[in-house]
Amino acid sequence: MTGSNRVKLKPGDTIGILGGGQLGRMLALAAARLGLRCQVFSPDPDSPAFDVVLNATCAEYADVEALELFANDVDVVTYEFENVPSAAAMVLAARRPVLPSRSALETTQDRLTEKDFVTSLGIRTADYADVSSLAALREAAFLIGQPAVLKTRRFGYDGKGQVKIHQGDDLERVWAELGTKSAILEAFVPFEREISVVAARAADGQVECFDVTENEHRDHILKVSRAPAAIPDALAEEARDIASRIATALDYVGVLAVEMFVVSNGRAPGVLVNEIAPRVHNSGHWTLDGASISQFEQHIRAIAGWPLGKPLRHGHVTMTNLIGDEIDSYEQWLTVPGATVHLYGKGAARPGRKMGHVTQVSPLPPKQG
Amino acid sequence: MTGSNRVKLKPGDTIGILGGGQLGRMLALAAARLGLRCQVFSPDPDSPAFDVVLNATCAEYADVEALELFANDVDVVTYEFENVPSAAAMVLAARRPVLPSRSALETTQDRLTEKDFVTSLGIRTADYADVSSLAALREAAFLIGQPAVLKTRRFGYDGKGQVKIHQGDDLERVWAELGTKSAILEAFVPFEREISVVAARAADGQVECFDVTENEHRDHILKVSRAPAAIPDALAEEARDIASRIATALDYVGVLAVEMFVVSNGRAPGVLVNEIAPRVHNSGHWTLDGASISQFEQHIRAIAGWPLGKPLRHGHVTMTNLIGDEIDSYEQWLTVPGATVHLYGKGAARPGRKMGHVTQVSPLPPKQG
Fold this sequence. Notes:
2 copies of one chain form a homodimer. In chain A, 50% of the residues are buried. Helices cover 28% and strands 28% of the residues of chain A. Chain A has helices spanning 22-33, 64-73, 86-93, 102-109, 111-120, 134-144, 171-178, 233-249, 287-290, 295-304, 330-334, and strands at residues 14-18, 37-42, 55-58, 76-79, 128-131, 148-152, 162-165, 183-187, 193-201, 207-209, 213-218, 221-227, 254-263, 270-277, 315-323, 339-343, 354-363. Chain A has 11 helices and 17 strands. With 369 residues, chain A is of the alpha+beta class. The first copy, chain A, has 3 domains: 14-98, Rossmann fold; 127-187, ATP-grasp fold, A domain (Dna Ligase, domain 1), CATH 3.30.1490; 193-363, ATP-grasp fold, B domain (D-amino Acid Aminotransferase, Chain A, domain 1), CATH 3.30.470.20. Chains A and B meet through helix 1, helix 11, strand 16 and strand 17 of A and helix 1, helix 11 and strand 16 of B. Chains A, B: It is an enzyme of class 6 (ligase). Chains A, B: ATP binds at residues 111, 151, 156-162, 186-189, 194, 217, 274-275. Chains A, B: This is N5-carboxyaminoimidazole ribonucleotide synthase.
């Protein structure tokens, strides 16, 4: 198999997964159900995904020899996190198809490139400006106003790598605090709701979106997702359409998530794109139990060159993350009727660490008439 | 942990699974979702369950040293097949809890012991007789009549180790054909339906039965299961009650399946027990997609000392086995709306080999009124 993106796996073929966290683990479990093998590459010897595959590579992402050996062992490469080093992706892509493609990674690894890309599609985002110096920050802060959020262009997640700026803040101190020369200032969005759409796209262009999910964060970490989001149908349609257009414009193969804000400002509510995650996403975990096909299976089908499924939701679904020592509540959750408990097999329950999640599905009320 | 049956696993603990087929594989996948590790022991280097665990032991069941090392690595031992050699179970049970217990294995490994046990509970079976010689076969054939089925007492499955006897058959030839001195003659049951009940029992005595399943065999191999079985409620209640009583009488911990015949003989229909499988069972595969908890998770919860779930069925469920080269139809199945495809990752699609299965769920019709 060459580096072409035209992949067609057979049962028994092997998928290489970069990253060994819970997303890689759940991807590997979904692949196993389809008769596909996985090999996981991760620098962390305690990677939870290692537990569910026969072959694992424990090496740094900068280890070219390890990457080459890994590529030789697999038929296609995918990843569970967006911060795959570009050099690693290049080494792998020279030997095996990497899906989603490197260009999708490059677009979404940089907040500025990503926002430029989204706005180029005529899709709205918060106001933003490139900030590469204190002078640029002062100018951007003047144009965009406060409150605003200063973010590193790269490598931020779960609220890391960002500082909120209020009226009167000392911008020199804020700039020093962020500690980078590559930043973006975004207007703070007084949103009504945070929502996301998880979409899958196949190499042949087929796109399947899951229902819009409403997300509730706590300390910048996703705590609860609810599907469907309690928003008007037209807005949900707009959100799904945005995700489809983004996936198509990226010529994307696999699952991505688009995080959005619902804003109204006293007018009819609209949607702003906040962020694209070029991977399966925490806000799609409800699909494991609440839909006829999960985001993980959709991703595996897409990168295998297999047809996507048409997702049907089983009811009203709530997904609750177990964060840090909340994992200790697993025994109570096991006794809740209809609750499905997922534990990630991680060792230490450090504060803020995602240790597992619970799904609860309320059957759809019977249709009247 | 000692050899006691009082097990209480913590997330991150390890379950040892004897047997590396699709049942072991699906048990390991269910355990992974609960944050538990598995180690698989199997003599077959191509075991499909090896693909989904980090640690595997490839050794013969008679290899005492390998069994001891395996026991040292795990916190509890279970199995995916009833023909676990008694000596292996004994070696393991001296070091770690083995669940279900050796006594449940011993009762169900021998068709005669099993039928004696079932009838001792006041539960009906087909007429049967112990046959250890040609003379005994002649006498049993006279008493039981024809047609009848001569079966080896041990190690039969999927129609192997059995011969049907018709009026006028040469019993000497039949006896020679079976080639054992340890057999049982069973009256052939002109059944209306074949059904099964998959039941889970926890160490504290809690029993949870899945809904009664109706099974259709082809060439002695399960082809289609449907849940619920199209039988009157009272009969379904009787079938579930039988499974519960058997599990309780065996002081069973884990999942078992009881295969039964529905017979009427012109009278009100009744149920005869055909066979007990002390393990997860092909006729329970529909629970993976068609119920709020699967038979695999119930088994893992039971042997982990965790509370069982209360299974709720999602609708009318059909499970179709993909046998031999029927696996080649997986691509068509992937396109069937609502169908969930499971492939076992086996190599050669030999005739009669179970390669995968497909589940289809029709949502429950809305309740009227």
